[in-house]
Each structure stands twice: as structure tokens, then as C-alpha cells.
Write a structure and sequence with these properties.
single chain; alpha/beta; 6-stranded mixed beta sheet
């Protein structure tokens, strides 16, 4: 066979996951799935999805699926919280200071009063854990799924004399009811055992036990 020259361009891979939403007719609920790589656009995407679900389907309830939400520094925690509640949301602390987390409510198309369920699991990490813990403690949302792992720490490090490196948590979050989420994680109100491959929207979530249980919150 003849030789060929193949040119390969090396570039950084970009995740293309994005916020998705759908309607659950039996529960009269909108379901919004937060993507793994959420960023500042999550807030505007959330507003668009809520308004679209209300305009097109007249939803009466809302489910936010955060089971794969690995949030980062760009995650708009305070803006997201302000959609559903207001006031004291707990405290973020470091080795040196405490920072009160306080939000002012913004009611978008009835977002402050719509019945709310949050879906969580071991892959719910960072600011999305704080979001779930705060709304749970405020009595604003029912939390369904599996416990989170408490990955709300920021980390610091130092170099050992032998060249090794030690990483340690230097901050955490205490919820409105005094739970240190970095230590305890978030415990769901309703525990539903499931595996990662059951997070599926096949046949309108027919095979997803966590979404199935969430529907019961609005139908039983």
C-alpha cells in the first residue's frame, strides 16, 4: 500500500454537556438536569428553562436533577439560591475567617413558591452540594437520592523536605441548621438506591428510580 501523510492537530478537549429540561406530565412537573461542567451560564439557562416549561406546559412543580453536577468556581451559587429562597443560607469558613452566605429573593415566574424536589448523589459536588443543603435546611426543597460526599472544601498544599506534597482542606460550609457539609455531606430526605447507569431519560425516565420516586412527591 502507498504511504500517506496524516496531519493531526492537538487541541484541548471541551465538554459539550449543557443544561437540559423536559416535562413530566403525570407529575405536572418540569425536570431540569444540571450538567457536569456547570458554569456562569447555568443561571441564564435555568431562567430560560423555567419560563419555557411554564409557558409551554403550565408546570405546577419542579425537579432539579443535580446527580452529576460537579460545580466549579464559576457556579453562580448565590444567584441560584435567590431563585427559590432568601435570607441566611449558612456560613462558608476558612482557617482564618467566616463568611455569611445571604441572598435576596428574586421571584421569576413563581420560582419562590413552586414545589421543589432536588435529586442528589455521590457525584453531586461542590457548590451544588451547598445549594442542596441550604434549600433542604430552609425547608424549601425535598431532597431525594443518595448521600453526597462532602466535596465542598477548597484545598491548600505545602512541599515536604523530601519533595513530596501534602494537600489539605482549608475551608468548608456550615448549613443554616449547623451541619458541616464538608464533614457530613448532604443526606437526602428520601433515600433511593441507584447506580450511575440508571441516570437515564429513556422513555421519559421510566427506568430511573430516583426520578420515579420524585414524581410520587407530587402525585401521592
Amino acid at each position: 500500500s502507498s504511504e500517506r501523510t496524516v496531519e493531526v492537530t492537538r487541541e484541548r478537549l471541551q465538554a459539550t454537556d449543557m443544561l437540559r429540561y423536559t416535562y413530566l406530565p403525570i407529575a405536572k412537573a418540569g425536570l431540569i438536569r444540571i450538567p457536569m461542567g456547570g458554569n456562569v451560564n447555568i443561571m441564564s439557562d435555568m431562567l430560560t428553562s423555567i419560563e419555557t416549561l411554564i409557558d409551554q406546559n403550565g408546570i405546577e412543580n419542579l425537579v432539579i436533577d443535580m446527580r452529576v453536577a460537579h460545580s466549579n468556581d464559576d457556579w453562580p451559587l448565590e444567584s441560584m439560591l435567590s431563585l427559590f429562597t432568601d435570607g441566611d443560607m449558612g456560613t462558608r469558613y476558612t482557617r482564618y475567617n467566616d463568611y455569611a452566605l445571604t441572598v435576596d429573593a428574586q421571584d421569576i415566574s413563581g420560582s419562590q413558591t413552586i414545589p421543589l424536589v432536588l435529586l442528589i448523589g455521590p457525584d453531586t459536588q461542590g457548590a451544588s452540594e451547598i445549594f442542596a443543603a441550604a434549600l433542604q435546611d430552609k425547608g424549601r426543597a425535598t431532597v431525594i437520592g443518595q448521600p453526597t460526599l462532602g466535596y465542598v472544601f477548597d484545598f491548600d498544599h505545602f512541599i515536604l523536605p523530601d519533595g513530596g506534597e501534602v494537600f489539605f482542606g482549608n475551608s468548608s460550609y456550615v448549613s443554616p441548621l449547623g451541619r458541616d457539609i464538608g464533614v457530613l455531606g448532604v443526606m437526602p430526605d428520601v433515600l433511593v438506591q441507584s447506580s450511575w447507569d440508571q441516570v437515564s431519560d429513556e422513555e421519559n425516565f421510566k427506568y430511573d428510580p430516583v426520578v420515579t420516586r420524585a414524581k410520587l412527591e407530587f402525585t401521592q
